[in-house]
Each structure stands twice: as structure tokens, then as C-alpha cells.
Amino acid sequence: MNDARAVRLTVNGRAYDISAPPNETILDFLRYRLGLVGTKNGCDTGNCGACTVLVDGKAVNSCLVLAVEMDGAGITTIEGIGSPDRLHPLQQAFVDHGVIQCGYCAPGMIMAAKSLLDEEPGPTEEEIRSAIAGNLCRCTGYLAIIKAIASAAGIMRGEK
Ligand code: FES
Ligand code: FES
Fold it and tell me: Residue 136 CA: which ligand 1 atom is closest?
């Protein structure tokens, strides 16, 4: 018996018509079907934030979302916001502030931060902390991450 369902979605602006098995998460779809491995699998249970992507602009844990729920949705991954020769200001700020240590948390952190900055271009430190509260980092102690996000916000506002 085939329980797969037809789903139409976009990923980084590109449209896909897929046949989604009932148990396929968006995280697995992105990594294993599209090869978009920038989105990381840290826990597969919604506890680390490494798998954060944007769904219609909102940050979500892609390990908790099924592909069959995504009909009509627009998904943005870390690959969709910048490229190696043209980094997004958040990506550049993570590099400039030495945030990338093991780097495993960075894509999810950046996508959570992007969701915040798209909604609030001038966030307070508290708002930044709150936006990344679901994203774990085992390496940095978070201060550099918060500084990097605040710096990127300033650059995006044209201040520096
Ligand atoms: Fe999704 Fe950890 S892999 S929250
Ligand atoms: Fe290693 Fe954040 S840099 S988990």
C-alpha cells in the first residue's frame, strides 16, 4: 500500500511537486532528497534547533514537521539566503565574530536570527536571546553569537 501524498512546495524559491511518504520530515526531505545538507540534524526530537529553517518566514524545527503538511508552503534554508561569494550579513557576521567553532549550530542559529530580523530589524539583546532560545551551542557560550546577530542587524539597517 502506498500512503504517499502529492505535495507542492517551494524551497529557496524553486518549486517542487513531490510524493511525500507519511513519515518523511522536511529535514529528511531537504537533506536526503534535495541534498541541502546545510540544515543539520542534531537531535531529531525538537530539542537543539540545528535543523531550523523558515517556513513562510517563520523559524521552525524541520525535524518536527512532516513533508505532507507542507503543501503550498515556502521553505527557506541556509543555502537560500547567501552563497560562498556573497554571504548574507548574518553569515558574514558569524565569520567575523568567530562564531563558527564546530559550526554545527550555525545554520540553525542564522535562520532563527533571520526570522527575527525580518520581523524586527532593531532587536534588543533580550529579543535576540529569546529568538535563539531554542538553538543550542556547545562551543561558544552564546555571547559571540548575540554580538554577531546585533552587528548584522546594524549592517542590515545601513548603520555600519
Ligand atoms: Fe531538530 Fe534538533 S534536529 S531540533
Ligand atoms: Fe559548535 Fe555552536 S559552534 S555547537
Answer: 2
Domain count, the chain: 2
Domain end point (choices 46, 80, 114): 80
The CATH number of residue 71's host domain is 3.10.20.30
Residue 50 pLDDT greater than 80, yes or no:
yes
User: Per residue in 1-47, pLDDT tens?
Assistant: 579 999 999 999 999 999 999 999 999 999 999 999 999 999 999 99
Which residue type is seen at 151?
A: S
Domain encompassing residue 102: 89-156
Contact in structure between 149 and 90 (CB atoms under 8 Å): yes
Phi, psi of 9 (to 5 degrees): -145, 170
Centroid of ligand 1 to alpha carbon of 111 (angstroms): 13
Find cell 561558544 and name the residue: 140
Q: What is the pTM of this model?
A: 0.96
